[in-house]
């Protein structure tokens, strides 16, 4: 019975489950329980309280604290911190007694109308090089890596063997056999381990060398309509106009007298640049950016504003808008899946379950009253008045008030969502009646992407 049912394999090691199972077996055999006997009990034979195994309370030392090179500046500016993957990141920068909502509204409008600066140093950074690096990355990423030209960037995703989205980021081709990969903040160590696993155990014949650069380089994102003029005022030894330095380009340059690698990428949907610089001199660069930025109405912004800006554009965050059961197709990222090569997870995307039309898909949601901000995690239902338990058709993954648009926006995963545009479904709020919401496209702001290409 134990072999065929795995009875007793749970955390109780049979202390609870086996007694009930043996009683059922005895009843089936028509024999007394003592005659059937018991299995061999494993330690702990007697129950052990959690307190026995608990360690000493060490407060803030319980988890490692990781700080960026700009941390002291953020603290001096009064920014409360948000912990992301052990990193302490500035949440928002309050002025004159502002609360979270007032500060975020001001920061968002500054980026949309003038210029903002954010410390993006926590993103994972990996140097990948070697004569076989293109072949290696072709197997890991879903797009055609070999077609990337030196000096160009690409948005890339990697899948697990099950075909589900594992991580995403921007990769840059710095040389014929050298790439610079970025990952999510929380996924940096996992991604490096994933790459090394395949390189060392499955494809050891490939000559590829991986180095983590996450702490070595800091990243300063400068975003907004005035970002180009701000960088030009700092002094830059390359032209920054659209023709010379187009969207998704990368260039080594000297900015404000310091050597940097400059990326023309955007997570806000605005004209934006990302300054990658040696962490030892990152604070000096940040101070120069903030000083020169005063002439352009600059505002430092934190993670909350970053979330609002990217949600307005429909940009996902892995681990928030995905949950380990979401494929690129569910997210509308079919355009990233190469039909000309194989890659990890591609075969799994052809499984019948991944081809179902009723899978949960990424959509946008608008509140019916243009005021209600849906709590993240809110379950969605098809209609009201259903007897309990009410079947769910999805859930809210991201939700914010947009001061730029003047109303709340939300992203959600909804059953068959992309074919249900303009339909009304209901959010099962914790209090009150189910709240009507409208399914829309997940891009709320500048859907053609014109602003980031200027």
In short, what is this structure?
The protein has 454 residues and is α+β, with helices and mostly antiparallel strands. It contains eleven helices and 19 strands. A hairpin with a 4-residue loop joins strand 16 and strand 17.
List the helices and strands and how they pair.
Elements: H1 2-5, H2 17-29, H3 33-36, H4 50-53, H5 71-76, E1 81-84, E2 87-90, H6 100-113, E3 115-119, E4 124-129, H7 133-140, E5 153-159, E6 165-175, E7 178-183, H8 188-202, E8 209-212, E9 217-223, H9 227-234, E10 250-255, E11 258-263, E12 272-278, H10 282-293, E13 298-300, H11 303-313, E14 360-367, E15 379-381, E16 392-402, E17 407-415, E18 424-427, E19 435-440
Helix pairs in contact: 6-11, 9-10
Main features:
19 strands; alpha+beta; Alpha-Beta Plaits; 6-stranded antiparallel beta barrel; 11 helices
Classified in CATH, the superfamily of the domain at 124-212 is Aminomethyltransferase beta-barrel domains
Rg over C-alpha atoms, rounded to the nearest angstrom: 26 Å
For the secondary structure, the number of strands is: 19
Question: Can you name the CATH architecture of the domain at 124-212?
Answer: 2-Layer Sandwich
- Binned, the helix content reads 10-25%
Oligomer state of the chains in this structure: single chain
Structure explained in plain terms:
The chain is an alpha+beta fold. Among the domains are: 2-51, no CATH class; 124-212, Aminomethyltransferase beta-barrel domains (Alpha-Beta Plaits); 356-444, Beta Barrel (Elongation Factor Tu (Ef-tu), domain 3), CATH 2.40.30. The chain is built from eleven helices and 19 strands. The protein has a six-stranded mixed β-sheet. A six-stranded antiparallel β-barrel has the order 14-17-16-15-18-19. Strand 11 and strand 12 form a beta hairpin. Helix 9 (227-234) packs across helix 10 (282-293). The N and C termini lie far apart (69 Å). The mean pLDDT is 95.
